[in-house]
Amino acid sequence: MGENEQIKALFERVCYDNSVQAYNELYIALCTRLIHFSASIVSSYHLAEEIVSDVFLSLWQKKNELSHVQNPVVYLYVSTKNRSLNTLQEQKRHQHDSLDELNTDMLAIAPEAENGMVSAEVSQKIERAIRSLPARCQLIFRLIKQDRLSYREVAELLNISTKTVDAQLTIAVKKISLAIRFDLSDETAQTYLRLDS
Amino acid sequence: MSFTDTMDQEKLYALLAREMAGILTTEEAEDLRQLLQQYPDASYIREVFSQNWTPAGKQYSPQQVQQLMEKHQQRLQQISEAEPYTEAPEPRRHWGWYSGIAAGLLILLALGGYWRYGQQKKTPVVLSQLVTDKRMRSQILLPDGSRVWLNAGSKLDYPPQFAAHQPREVTLEGEAFFVVQPDAERPFRVHTKTFQIRVLGTSFNVRAYPLEDSAVASLVQGSVEVVLNDASKQVVSLKPNEKLTVPVHPATEQTENIVAVHTPLVIYKSKLTTLQDSIITETAWVQNKLAFKHLQLDKVVTMLEQWYGVEINFSNNRKKQLYFTGVFESESLEEVLNALETTLSFSWHKDADGKIWIN
């Protein structure tokens, strides 16, 4: 069973069986991803933790009305996005209906250094390459690579086309690739590199 | 670099992106294969994208996730308490697991002395399974409110609901720490390949990895009985701070599929090992600590392999006999190895494949 089906199955057990066990598993499976997503909007992990807790409280209260939800992952991300934007609006007292001011510090990801494949140096290069991308592009990269959302899910969440998701992700991959390909050590380069001149 | 090259490279990036998103078609996979032959350096990049990545900023440890969960449950409970009883006619379990404990007490009062030890009415249930990979530790709240910490490379089977009036039974392969919710009516049982443990309410650790030469039950609090699975069906009671070690013939690839329970060699009871007065080495992993006291290096190496998900080999087998004591918390593998290396009794290096060698 893939991760998405597992989450779907848990969500159904919450909605149809009122299963506390499934609800707890759902929370554990998704809370950190949603917190990072929320934190990139509200710029605070502390606030984000509360927002995600609110999202799950509301899920429990409304569980019997949610059997129509097609994609629980998208539902929870969208709820998190909306609550985060509302919180921001309350705090700053001005309208926020889009994700224009993302705090990318909360979005950066990099390969685990020293896992045999990637040195700490390469990992840093990658992080820098990601940070140089536009915020929206960083968000898309993270949602696909780290949160393992599909093109369709990201498109739905951000109200953009899957074509845009594809294009943005390709930009991110290119930027990261260019950052590390000229950086292979001589030894690795001999194994992998064939200069194309 | 020619124009075609640029076109090809753009295509390569697009294909790598789609591969990462898991939406590569068969046709695109073939295109990618050809492009990788043309640009071998891209294989490295592809490999990097296939690795697990982690947040560069804040990361939540399993303990922190647990704390978030507990905080969340407190808020949930407050809200549920504030709710009026109008939802009462719901089919089942609308009270949540908090009241499950209270409900357990009620049933106990109603059926006082009803439970029959040893009787098992087996009804087929679909089991849930929690599996951890190497490097990964996990924690779960069972439907009865008991908590289980699962160490790296382990597997726990448990039913989605524990039936009433029947023992709560789970099956473990690997290592886990249990804090069992007391429920006299439904004794808790942990089955492993070597023994089963019968519990009332207590906290204990079980280590039963299939490839290790012994299975160990360590009791921290309460009382348990360990029942061997061999023909003897020997029963050993443990008191707090005691552990039982049962040697087994480690499963090999040939015998793994055969249901064979080997006769234990010599079983023995001993005390739990404490370090720095407060750390119990048998259960330190639950607190995210890697602790060992006067442990043979080859056993230390097995712990490190599980902890960090690496392969460690000995180029000099005599080094396996060295003994070490240590407590590590957030150190990297390299830091741990370097610390052990400062005893000057061995040296280590990493080869091109990322394997670690002890010389």
TrEMBL record, chain A:
<dbReference type="GO" id="GO:0003677">
    <property type="term" value="F:DNA binding"/>
</dbReference>
<keyword id="KW-0731">Sigma factor</keyword>
<comment type="similarity">
    <text>Belongs to the sigma-70 factor family. ECF subfamily.</text>
</comment>
<dbReference type="InterPro" id="IPR013325">
    <property type="entry name" value="RNA_pol_sigma_r2"/>
</dbReference>
<feature type="domain" description="RNA polymerase sigma-70 region 2">
    <location>
        <begin position="33"/>
        <end position="93"/>
    </location>
</feature>
<dbReference type="InterPro" id="IPR013249">
    <property type="entry name" value="RNA_pol_sigma70_r4_t2"/>
</dbReference>
<dbReference type="InterPro" id="IPR039425">
    <property type="entry name" value="RNA_pol_sigma-70-like"/>
</dbReference>
<dbReference type="InterPro" id="IPR014284">
    <property type="entry name" value="RNA_pol_sigma-70_dom"/>
</dbReference>
<dbReference type="GO" id="GO:0016987">
    <property type="term" value="F:sigma factor activity"/>
</dbReference>
<dbReference type="Pfam" id="PF08281">
    <property type="entry name" value="Sigma70_r4_2"/>
</dbReference>
<dbReference type="InterPro" id="IPR014327">
    <property type="entry name" value="RNA_pol_sigma70_bacteroid"/>
</dbReference>
<feature type="domain" description="RNA polymerase sigma factor 70 region 4 type 2">
    <location>
        <begin position="124"/>
        <end position="176"/>
    </location>
</feature>
<dbReference type="InterPro" id="IPR036388">
    <property type="entry name" value="WH-like_DNA-bd_sf"/>
</dbReference>
<dbReference type="InterPro" id="IPR013324">
    <property type="entry name" value="RNA_pol_sigma_r3/r4-like"/>
</dbReference>
<dbReference type="GO" id="GO:0006352">
    <property type="term" value="P:DNA-templated transcription initiation"/>
</dbReference>
<keyword id="KW-0805">Transcription regulation</keyword>
<keyword id="KW-0804">Transcription</keyword>
<dbReference type="InterPro" id="IPR007627">
    <property type="entry name" value="RNA_pol_sigma70_r2"/>
</dbReference>
<protein>
    <submittedName>
        <fullName>RNA polymerase sigma-70 factor, ECF subfamily</fullName>
    </submittedName>
</protein>
<dbReference type="Pfam" id="PF04542">
    <property type="entry name" value="Sigma70_r2"/>
</dbReference>
UniProtKB/TrEMBL annotation, chain B:
<keyword id="KW-1133">Transmembrane helix</keyword>
<dbReference type="GO" id="GO:0016989">
    <property type="term" value="F:sigma factor antagonist activity"/>
</dbReference>
<dbReference type="InterPro" id="IPR012373">
    <property type="entry name" value="Ferrdict_sens_TM"/>
</dbReference>
<feature type="domain" description="Protein FecR C-terminal">
    <location>
        <begin position="289"/>
        <end position="357"/>
    </location>
</feature>
<keyword id="KW-0812">Transmembrane</keyword>
<feature type="domain" description="FecR protein">
    <location>
        <begin position="129"/>
        <end position="225"/>
    </location>
</feature>
<dbReference type="Pfam" id="PF16344">
    <property type="entry name" value="FecR_C"/>
</dbReference>
<dbReference type="InterPro" id="IPR032508">
    <property type="entry name" value="FecR_C"/>
</dbReference>
<keyword id="KW-0472">Membrane</keyword>
<dbReference type="Pfam" id="PF04773">
    <property type="entry name" value="FecR"/>
</dbReference>
<feature type="transmembrane region" description="Helical">
    <location>
        <begin position="95"/>
        <end position="115"/>
    </location>
</feature>
<protein>
    <submittedName>
        <fullName>Ferric-dicitrate binding protein FerR, regulates iron transport through sigma-19</fullName>
    </submittedName>
</protein>
<dbReference type="InterPro" id="IPR006860">
    <property type="entry name" value="FecR"/>
</dbReference>
